[in-house]
Amino acid sequence: MKATYYGQSCMEFDFDGTKVLLDPFVSYNPLAKEIDVNTIKPDYIFLSHGHQDHVADMATIQKNSGATVLAIVETAGWVRRQGVPDDKVIEFNLGGTVQLPFGSVKMVYAAHTNSTPDGQYGGFPVGFVFNVKGKRIYFAGDTALTMEMKLLADMKLDWAFLPIGGHYTMDVDDAIKAAEFVNCARVVGIHYDSFPPIMIDKQQALDKFQNEDISLSLPEIGSTFEL
Description:
Order of helices and strands: EEEEHHEHEEEEEEHEHEE
Largest sheet: 7 strands, mixed
Number of strands: 14
Number of helices: 5
Strand order of the largest sheet: 6-5-4-3-2-1-14
């Protein structure tokens, strides 16, 4: 299993040939200019919420790939309004789990806001826990530090993808606490550096995580790594 980072919070998991894209924001990201969005062709697209920096390329990628899009009910309504066929949309809600050919995905709580680009209510923001062949991967989406994360501590997470940019989400210090809350020692940082308010000192972030004996990965945009 592999993961490719496309900048901001956009990750693509390759689960033994099944490609799962999260929060597609590529062509509008000034740091991802080298990525051709037309080459991204997932089987599934997951949306943590409806803010522009998480959904901007959803329609283009879905049209190019025929991917099935999964989101909370109200954000899924926006997906349909973009012309995505009903049979290519799966809506579910907090606490719900969907079974897919590659494994299961549970929708979990996130502390943030959520509206869609057309100004409509987008439902709750969410995170996801992927359970694929015994590996458990937590994608937090946009979230503040929240006590609900402690509910994930018994899941034996292998990886946690956590926002670290601050301003709109958790910062580095809160992400360290989040890693402790969810009991996961391998963290991939997301949602940082794309815009001035969320720029970070990468070396300082790496040092802070290392001081707490937690591994922090900050992959280069376009790079792929093993899960």
